[in-house]
Each structure stands twice: as structure tokens, then as C-alpha cells.
Design a protein that fits this description.
Blueprint: H1 11-23, E1 43-44, H2 47-58, E2 66-75, H3 79-92, E3 98-103, E4 106-111, E5 120-123, H4 126-137, E6 149-157, E7 160-168, H5 174-192, H6 206-216, H7 220-232, E8 256-262, H8 265-277, H9 282-298, E9 302-309, E10 326-333, H10 340-355, H11 362-369, E11 383-388, E12 395-397, E13 400-406, E14 416-423, E15 426-434, H12 440-459, H13 473-482, H14 496-506, E16 511-515, E17 518-521, H15 522-538, E18 546-550, H16 555-567, E19 570-573, H17 580-589, E20 594-597, E21 611-614, H18 619-623, E22 639-644, E23 654-658, H19 659-666, E24 679-682, H20 690-699, E25 704-707, H21 710-713, H22 716-725, E26 730-734, H23 735-744, E27 754-758, H24 764-774, E28 778-783, E29 793-797, E30 811-812, E31 816-821, E32 835-840
Parallel strand pairs: 5-6, 11-14, 16-25, 18-19, 18-20, 20-21, 24-25, 24-26, 26-27, 27-28
Antiparallel strand pairs: 1-4, 2-7, 2-13, 3-4, 6-7, 8-15, 9-10, 12-13, 14-15, 16-17, 22-23, 28-29, 29-30, 31-32
Length: 845
Amino acid sequence: MSRFSKFLMSKEKRALLEKMLQEEGMVAVSLARIEKRAEQGPANLSSSQQRLWFLDRMEPGSTTYNMPYKIDLRGDLQLTALEAALNEIVERHEILRTVFRRQDGEVQQIVQARQAVQIERQMLSKEELDRLALQEAQRPFDLSAGPLMRATLVQTGEREHTLLLTLHHIVFDGWSMGVLFQELTTLYEAFVEHRPSPLAELPLQYSDYAHWQQEWLQGEEFQKQLSYWQTSLAGAPVVLDLPTDQPRPLLPSYRGGNRSFSLPSVLATELKSWSQGVGATLFMTMFGAFAALLYRYTGQSDLLIGAPVAGRNLRETEGLIGFFVNTLVLRADLTEDPTFAELLHRVKGMTTEALSHQELPFDKLVEHLQPVRDPSRSPLFQVMFNFLDSPHEERKFSGLSLTHGEVLNGTAKFDLTLYVEDGPDGIKGNFEYNRDLFSEATVARMADHLQTLLESVLTHPHLPLSHLPLITDAERDQALFAWNETRTEYPRDLCIHQLVERQAAVRPDAVATLFDGTELTYAELNGRANRLAHLLRKQGVAPDVLVGLCVERSHEMVVGMLGILKAGGAYVPLDPAYPAERLAFMADDADLQVIVTQSHLTAGLPQRARRLICLDSDLAEIERESDQNLISLTEATHLAYVVYTSGSTGTPKGVLVPHRAVNRLVCNTDYVQLDETDVVGQVSNSSFDAATFEVWGALINGGKLVGVTKEMALTPKAFAGAIKEHGVTAMFVTAALFNQIVAAVPDAFSELRHLLVGGEALDPRWVRAAIRGGRPQRLLNGYGPTESTTFATYHLIEEIEEDTTNIPIGRPIANTTAYVLDGQLQLLPIGVPGELYLGGDGVAR
């Protein structure tokens, strides 16, 4: 599949364009005939050549614009005739003997005197041939010295030869290959029969065209075409934000990869028939599908896509070898989420107009539009669509059969290019992609999605594009089932306090909490919480009644949390460090009638509550209550707590979390396995939802909860010392705190069994430092909004490569589902940004 071909290649295509223009009430552009130059010395470059010369000066030795071909010859090859034919072609077409040099302040193309083409000859195996073909494709040209065409003939069998032909794009294009093959076969046949060349002398040379074009650029027609394109592209976005696998480098390397595919024969036949039925060409249908795919990947409804055209509207240019191809900037309008039928109607009108204004050189368009230049992106567009309707048919002549193809030289000029070839054996495609941005797996999925989209178009042409199926059945099953089969057994019908009571019954003397050097056993904790709960019951606390909890990190905080749950209520953490205005808002919004607190904190609390219960000054009253377990009034679906968000994006809101959601977080889960041997460090205050994991992860599973003061957490060495001193085995820290600790004490977390890090994106630099310093047994990136009860997804970090730039949030934890959806709640492909929708037992009500 030639990457330099074009979608207008034949006289039939020109006739089709003229018919389309007539149908649209338009007139084809009338261009003046090309005349032979009066002076036959050095000539100016064409506009396209100037662009390639500039790019070559910017990156000397680049092979991005090499055009390598592999021509297979089977039969009795006469080497002398082949070499003579190539030499005759080089003699006929001056452009193949041209070099490019700066003279008198201008770059000019200079035709060299007759030079014989020397075909290098080798005998190799087919494996060695492939290696040589790639080497030849990646060997640079010197534009100022030439020659800009080289040929190597490799014999791979008794009657099998391959001609490796490599040219620079500045002297050649896809149409030129057709001219070369036609002349090569004609000349070879003549020379085999010892006849002179039957080809007529060329009336023009490429330099005549270049001279004519430079004059055309000064004329009235140029101004008309420029005006059309300025109007057509006004206000268009010049950046396409395709989701990439790697961050975009500051400068492109043009490292390319290819992913080829073939459409099923039935689908190809139906597409052609359907296109014909709606009055569109296959080019328009495939372009529309490509635009729809980009729309679904990016969400952008106004797209600029490059498309090459032959640039040979003048009949005098049809038989010339040279660089005529031009690039059009096609603007796809997908606003208002059209149906594919409507999109195709828009594409037909847009392409018809664009083709009637195709003479304006692309570089002149860029020069006049002056888009904001970004060295990391090509100007105006970053993706291209190339439709090829000239399949590589086998040629037979003088006892030889000839087939050809292009050697893929590992380059890519754009972020992404889709090549579509319509041939007798069906519709084939190839995605050429920038390897700095995309992985092969991503592009392979892209090819599958294009096919799925085309199938959807045929069955649902009148559905909005956003509703057309995009992902494959296998991907759908993977997203719906394989990644979301997370159900495990856990105590979904019990409440938090009931599970803690179980631990108090079987492990009464085990230490439950450790704060400031003092300990509470499970029996002591349970008894103190029971006394508070009895008092709260008398204050009217019942299921789903909200009770404020404003207590510093301490045994009393845990007693307050557990006591409120035992009474049947749900605690609302009120951080003592919050401003009085925020505390007043939360108390009013939650309609708090009772607040559990400490006496030295009461001054900052709103006075609207009916009752403040101070765990210190009211201790005598609390102590008079029973220390026996209460009859539970709550069920697992009742509220356990309400935590308020930060309010960074507006008014803070309370998130309602039931008992079952907490059980799902810490009981029989898959991301951590906590038991009675674990010591959980509490770094979070009660208003941060990570405290849910810390407090209940320890106490529901019979472990020990160790408080870490704020002052200690902000002193890395003291923090690391406390972890080791108390034998902490499990902990959650924010990404910011993790970075700070690891920077000062790289091995601080080395003795942990479970370390969860989250709250914001992890910096791979500090993760690597922690791994080098001695990684914990399980280092986890935990992610989840408050509404999903602390964690919804996790990623186990084992090793990360040096070039890793981000760390994934992983997969849903047990009894949780996670889907990435678009605005219409359709599943999105891997790697395409969308909204994360979370479900399961952990979602707040």
C-alpha cells in the first residue's frame, strides 16, 4: 500500500469530480496551460519542494520523506534490459537527475548531466532481503549532491528477483510510481527485443511546472482560492486532542508504526452498495467513518483532517514524474451529534467544494493563515486520511510478472494516518501512527473500533453518531463482566458496631486503640462506647439520626464514633480545625440536634444543637449508664456516617454512607487482607474519609489502631520511627505526605504489609524512590471519591519503568463496579477519556 498515493488518480476520477461539481451547481477550476520555460537553466522550486527543502534543512539526514519500494520480478529477467530501461527513464525525466542547491540567495533545482544508473546486485535469502530493504529505506539522501534515486537488485531464487527502489519525495510521488511502471514495462519490452524506445519525447519537464506554479501564485486565481480556504477554515480548531498512551514530546521524532487490517468481504460489498445508493463515493463514506471515530475518541465536533490530492488537474502533468501531490485540509462538521446519513451529506458538500479549490499549495495556506505554531504538532491538522483506488495489480510482460509494494521504513509524518485501499480483493486499511504517542495495542483497538463503527453505520444509519456501537463484543464483555466480576462474600447484613462487638467478645483483652502512649482493650472500648450509646438513646438518637462528632484524634474520637453507631445514629465528623462558619453550615445543613465533643472545643461550635455531650466534662453522667451492648435498632442499609466534601468546587455537600458500604471496604476484600495481627496507623482526622479505612479496617478485623499525631506526620524521621516502634503493618497516606516522607526517609515504609497512597495523582519519581528504599509488601494506588466510600479502585504497584509518567488507578475493589462512559452513558474504549461511573455496595446513598 503506497503511503504517497492520492485519492484522485485517474481520468475516471476527474470525470466523477466534474459530475459532482455540476450536481452542486459549481464550476471546475479552469487553469491556464503550462508552457515550456524559455530559459532551460536552474529553476525555482515548486511550493511543495520548498517545504521539503526547509524540513530537510531543519533535520538533516532525516528519512521521513524517503519513498522506498520493493518490486518483485518473477521469470527470466534480462538485467541489461532492466538497467537500460531505468537509465532511459532517468534520461527522459530531468527531475530524477535534479539536485537542490542555494545559488544567488535562492534555492534552485539544478539538472545534472546524463548519469548512468548503476544497479547494485546481490544474492540474498528472503530474510536477508527484508533486512536490506529496511536498511535501504532508512538510508538518507543528500539533496544537494544527489542522486535522489537508488536501485538495488536482489536475487532470491533461480527466477526470482526483487528490485529495491528508493527515491526522495522531493522528486517523486505516488502518481509518479504509476508513470515509472508504465514506462519501465514499455521500455523493457522494447529493449529485450532490441528495439529503440517507443516513448514519445516529453513536451514538458517538472521544472516547467514549478516555474508555471510560481507565476500562478501571483495571479487572480490564487487569490480566489486563498479567500475560499480562509473562509472555509475560519475559527476551526487547529489541535486535535486524541488520547495518547504517552505524553507528547516537545519535538517529534517521527518514529512510526503500522497496523494493517482488512474489512470482511460482506461488509466491504455492503459499504460500496450503500454508498452508491445514497449518492456518495466510497471515499466519502470512509472519510465520514474516520471523522466519526475521531469524534467519539475526542468529543470534538469540529475536526480538521488532512487529505492528499494528486495535484495533476492539468493534463500536461499526467505523464510526468515529480512531486505534484498537494494536501487539502478537510473540515468535518459533526456539530449537534448528526446521524451518519446527515454527516455523509455534509462530507459530500465539503469535499466537493474542497476539490474544486485544490490548487492552493498547503504551505501557502499555512503561511497566510498563520496558526499558532507548536513544534510538537504539525500545523493545522495532526491526522490524515488517504484513500487509494489504484491497487497494486500484477503486470505481465516479456516473460516477467511484476508486483510491487512499499517498504515500511518506520516513520510517521503525522500523529495518525488512515490509508484505505479499494481493490479487487476488498477494502484494506492501514493505520500509520506515531510511536512516541501510541502503542500498537491501542492502534489495533482503533482498527477494530473503525470496523465496528462501519457495521453500525449500515444497520443504524439514522442513529446519532454518539449512539452508534463502537467497541467490540469482546471489549464489551471485558468491561461489563471480566473487569467487574468483583462480588465476594462479606457481612452485608450486619452493622459496623455489631462486627466490633464480635471482636470484643472473642478478644476482650487485645489492644484495640493506642493513642499518646495509652491503650484501650476491646472490652474497654466496647464498654465505654456502650455507656455513651445508652445516653444518646435517651437523647432521641435512632436510625438515620445525624449526630455531630467534634473530637480530636484520640481514644475519645473512636469511642464517640462507635457509641453513636451503637445508639443507632450516624456520626457527622466536625473537624475542630474548621472555621466556625463552616462548622455552623454543616450543623445547620445536617440539622444536628446532638453533638458529641470535648469541653475545650465547645467555644468553636454552633449553639443551635439541643444538646452538647462532652466526653470529658460530662463523663460522670456517661459513666452512670450501662456498659452492656444495646439491642441494635439499625440495619446494614441505615446510615453509618455523613462526611462533608471540601467544597472546593462550590458549596460543601454531605455524603451519606451506610454500614454496608463500610463493611464492603474492609471485610473480606481483595486489595488488602486485614486480620487480628495487623496494626493500622491512623494519620487522618475523622473528617477525612480515609479515617473510615483506618478505624474500621483495624477494629472490624480485630487489629490494633495506632494514632499518629499531625505533628509527627509532618516530621518524616519521627514518623518513620513511630511506624517501626509500634510495628505498624497497614497505613493510608496522601500522595503529598508520601512524597515528603520518602524524600527524607526512603525506607520509611519498608516494613509495612499494606501501604495505600492516594488523594491525588502519584508522582512516579517518589514511587521509584520508595521501591529502591525498600518497598512494602503491597504498595497500592488507591482511588475513589468520597461518594464511593474511601476507595473504589486500586492498583498494585510492583515495578515501574524509568519512562513511566503516570500510575493507573487500577481496577474496582471487591463488590464494586467501575465503568468509563461518555456523555450518552455509552461504554468507551480503553484509553479514551470519559466519566468514571462507580456502582456496587460501596456507593453512598
